[in-house]
Design a protein that fits this description.
By secondary structure, the protein is of the alpha/beta class. The chain is about 35% helix and about 10% strand. The strands form 3 sheets. Strands 7-8-9-10-11-12-13-14 form an 8-stranded parallel β-barrel. The longest helix has about 35 residues, at about 650-680. It is globular and about 80 Å long. The N and C termini lie far apart (about 60 Å). The structure holds 4-O-methyl-beta-D-glucopyranuronic acid. 4-O-methyl-beta-D-glucopyranuronic acid binds near residues 169, 297 and 376.
């Protein structure tokens, strides 16, 4: 009987400790090393947070939760100068310390200092605002989570970018476009009455990485979200998020004046339409007094927009901007536009449309540009609009959800992709004017600065569908705060907080993360290939897609494989997309010799027998890259298997299974692409490589009618 009870107790306690990924990087498990705990105890004898505002109470809770979890005790609450003191710079207690806080500290920045005052050691966390204190508290907890010393702290940190935004592509029916982690977090049916705990944990997680804005709805927008019934629900979410420093934004459907306003037109220059938007915005601010503004997808992929009325994108953006201006709201107007009637190279169209509009937008409009000129492909060169608009603020749109990068079955760490783009020199404001410096305003002088990420969050217990996909949410937030962090630094932080502080394990997992993006590019789209994925659901390879109602939704349009070679000629002898870049890049991209091979087939149509830098022909190199990619996944599996004793069994097993799927998918990509391209190259797969075990027709016959992430009507 005793044995039965005991094993029941063990089952229960291990169930309670199940590592299901829900806690994200905020796990706060007890530190095993007693020496370390006693060191921390010296700095954290007591806690003083003067004030009772909602944000201060959240800080209190989070510190108590984190410290009691990791150190096993709650610091004594005090009211004086001992232990840890958390207070804004204007409070008497901080003023009494004469800290000489840098006047350039941002409104959301924080300072953490270890000082000695009247012979006593103190740990001071201060900031200009309570939100700064919240960010500083998470930073302090992170130091403990990653087992750093607290003894000599002198930290000052402010975000480089003002708006750090998640874009949800969540529909009002609960589905998520390109979502691979279940359904929408927003339970519109139960709102506003029912506040799911998840909303609070979502806000905590975002605040912990400095995200301060959320766009609740899909850019393929439904005007109903602007009606009172939904605005009440939006207000309920905004109320939850406010004390965490997160503002709510919505997507505005351009035809809303017709659909819910019952006007005969949505022409942005029509007086009744202008008035309708003004009234609508006034109404929204009654529900959400700190509403952030709108994101708009217009005249793109069938969405309505100003061009329906022969007006420009600037006319469209400005009507909304004028309505929002009295409340300090902004418009994020997307540059992801391409015309279904326009035969021009699709990657050129955003620049062609927006470059002539430079300077025509109101001050509270920012143009939202995807990282590359096509569409979140595994790898793209940077978007030529960055730096090209001299008078208009531009913001980044990254995709955190892995629409084209293996969705939620592939481990692909996106910080390397983000960094490659951010660190690229645009040359548009002189040498050194990187994409990051265009975004943070240091190159352009713009003060409205923003970075958005299309999120991968859903109702899955682990939030993102794959335990490692959480790293991409984390990395996005960290880079939006500080784009100078390296992707490896971010990986180390995340691994330490999410898995373990064991040094060798951290190194092994960090290496896996670091190599995962190149691996994916290799097995999907090596050497600058792009847009060769499955039709509509975008799952798996399908380089054979052709003859669809629009050429630029097919694969053959992009790879242009023929008996001579493969690749899209975008040089002056081709579509001349190179002309949209600064002269420095034009020279590099146009030159068959100078172009980095990672972009080769993006810009050049290259013969199968051309020799590449490594000495192989293009055909051989293509094959080797595809095989290398799959082998790199095998390597990740080996590393992960070795880590079994170091990782909790729940997550180890989940990731083990997912890596096995990833390997199958990588070989599927490899085999399907190599066999398909072979029909053009007419050359054998190099004899040293294993032959595909299935035929091309087998791969071409595969169908996935219920693949996740698409709406049924797509
Ligand atoms: O990547 C494509 C997606 C669409 C998406 C579109 C966009 C929201 O396949 O699902 O629509 O981009 O960014 O607007």
């Amino acid at each position: 009987m005793r044995i039965v009870l005991l094993s029941l107790a063990i089952v229960l306690s291990s169930a309670a400790l199940a590592e299901d990924g829900y806690r994200l990087w905020l796990r706060y498990d007890k530190i095993a090393d007693a020496r370390l705990i006693s060191q921390y105890k010296k700095e954290l004898t007591s806690l003083h947070i003067p004030g009772q505002s909602p944000t201060l109470l959240i800080i209190h809770d989070e510190l108590n939760r984190g410290l009691s979890g990791m150190l096993g005790y709650i610091p004594k609450p005090t009211t004086g100068l001992t232990g840890l003191v958390v207070a804004t710079v204007d409070t008497p207690i901080i003023q009494s310390l004469n800290l000489h806080v840098d006047p350039n500290l941002g409104e959301e920045g924080f300072v953490i200092r270890s000082i000695t005052h009247s012979g006593k050691r103190l740990l001071i966390l201060t900031a200009k605002t309570e939100i700064g204190l919240l960010y500083g508290s998470f930073h302090l907890l992170k130091l403990i989570q990653t087992q750093q010393s607290l003894q000599q702290l002198n930290i000052q940190s402010s975000p480089k970018i003002k708006l750090r935004i998640l874009n949800h592509w969540d529909n009002l029916d609960g589905t998520v476009e390109r979502g691979y982690a279940g359904f929408s977090l927003w339970n519109w049916h139960k709102l506003p009455g029912y506040i799911d705990d998840r909303y609070i944990d979502y806000a905590r997680a975002n605040a912990s990485i400095g995200i301060n804005a959320t766009v609740l709805t899909n850019v393929n927008a439904n005007a109903l979200v602007l009606t009172p019934a939904y605005l009440q629900k939006v207000a309920a979410l905004a109320n939850v998020f406010r004390p965490y420093g997160i503002k709510v934004y919505l997507t505005a459907r351009f035809s809303a004046p017709i659909e819910i306003g019952k006007l005969p037109t949505a022409d942005p220059l029509n007086e009744a339409v202008k008035q309708w938007w003004k009234d609508k915005v006034t109404e929204i601010y009654k529900y959400v007094p700190d509403f952030g503004g709108f994101v708009v997808k217009a005249n793109s992929e069938g969405q309505p927009g100003p061009q329906n009325y022969k007006r420009t994108h600037a006319d469209g953006a400005n009507v909304l901007a004028d309505a929002l201006a009295p409340y300090n709201g902004i418009v994020m107007w997307r540059a992801f536009v391409y015309d279904d009637k326009e035969p021009d190279d699709r990657v050129k169209q955003a620049y062609t449309e927006f470059k002539p509009l430079d300077g025509a937008f109101r001050d509270n409009v920012i143009v939202q540009v995807k990282n590359g000129p096509l569409d979140f492909q595994p790898r793209e060169p940077f978007h030529p609009l960055f730096g090209a608009l001299k008078k208009t603020p531009l913001m980044m749109e990254f995709q955190i959800t892995q629409e084209y990068l293996g969705q939620s079955t592939n481990l692909v760490y996106l910080a390397n992709l983000f960094k490659e783009v951010l660190d690229t020199d645009t040359y548009q404001f002189g040498k050194g004017s990187t994409v990051a410096k265009v975004l943070d305003g240091s190159a352009t002088g713009q003060t409205l600065t923003a970075m958005a990420g299309v999120t991968n969050i859903g109702t899955d217990r682990n939030w993102c569908g794959h335990p490692f996909a959480q790293a991409n949410w984390y990395a996005f937030g960290r880079l939006a705060w500080d784009h100078q962090l390296s992707s490896q630094q971010i990986a180390v932080e995340w691994v330490r907080m999410t898995f373990t502080n064991d040094t060798n394990t951290v190194a092994s997992i960090t290496t896996m993360l670091d190599q995962s993006w190149e691996a994916c590019v290799n097995y999907m789209t090596p050497l600058g290939l792009h847009h060769i994925m499955g039709w509509s659901h975008h799952y798996g390879p399908a380089p054979w897609i052709k003859d669809k109602h629009r050429a630029d939704w097919t694969s053959v349009y992009y790879h242009k494989a023929d008996t001579f070679g493969i690749g899209f000629n975008r040089t002056t002898t081709g579509s001349n997309a190179v002309a949209q870049y600064a002269p420095e890049w034009q020279a590099v991209f146009s030159s068959r010799q100078a172009i980095p091979e990672k972009y080769l087939l993006w810009f050049h149509h290259v013969g199968w027998n051309d020799t590449l830098t490594g000495g192989k022909t293009l055909w051989e190199e293509l094959c080797y890259r595809y095989y290398t990619g799959a082998d790199q996944v095998k390597q990740m599996q080996t590393t992960w298997d070795m880590l079994k004793p170091k990782i909790d069994s729940d997550r180890h097993e989940q990731v083990r299974q997912l890596l096995a799927i990833q390997y199958q998918e990588a070989t599927w990509w490899r085999n399907a692409c190599v066999l398909y391209f072979q029909t053009f190259s007419k050359q054998p797969i190099p004899a040293t490589l294993p032959m595909p075990d299935k035929s091309l027709s087998f791969y071409m016959s595969l169908e996935f009618p219920y693949a996740p992430g698409i709406k049924p009507q797509w």
